[in-house]
Amino acid sequence: MAKFVRQLGQRSLNIVSEAGGMVIFLLEGLGLAFVPPFRPRRLLQEIYQIGVKSTLIVMLTGAFTGMVMALQGYYTLKQYGSEGALGSAVALSLIREMGPVLTGIMVSARAGSAVTAEIGIMRITEQLDALDTMAVNPIQYVVMPKLLAGVIAVPLLTAIFDVVGILGGYLVGVILLGVSSGSYFSSMAASVVPIDVYGGIVKSLVFGLTIILVACYKGYYTEHGAEGVSKATNQTVVLSAVLILAWDYVLTSFFM
152 and 212 in contact (C-beta within 8 Å)? Predict the structure, then answer.
């Protein structure tokens, strides 16, 4: 029993220590955004890597999510004679919850893992140490542009997800199942209010920052060797997904 308590306490201390390390890492990375030299080209490169290259998978996920939600929602609403509210159901579900959450999970799986692997390889091949030797702050040069790119790219990807998802719902609900096009869009316009949009934007900002923070932190402090990079990449995807769901609960409670 005593051994179990010691192990539990040690594990808890490790979690708290790592959380504190991530906060310090985040503050240092964001603080260096206001310190010269400024490298806008690096930021644009990271936006391309994190955002543009994730667009296709986000669009595909959004389209099929909207189609499935319209298909499920139609037969549920039909039982109550409320098929006209299908547009409202699809739009609210996407904008409030599914858009930010699924976009974050897709970005963590595609871009987050790539960021961890990139920085992890730089660590084990001593490229980060070389930057430090040349008086170039590796956090400012490598980490900071990725953090800013995550904050910029993920909300834009979430907006794309929402639009494509609504169009996917339109394809299934209106074109295939015969719901009135006017009622689809009018119910959407009547039910979606600014707080829904603001909530989705805030969630996507938090998710984007969380994903890239975890990815950069795990890569920056990876253990040596290919196994260390593999382990860090796996931890990034799992931890990012868990934190996205945890943050989603907290932020949903705040905006309700």
Answer: no
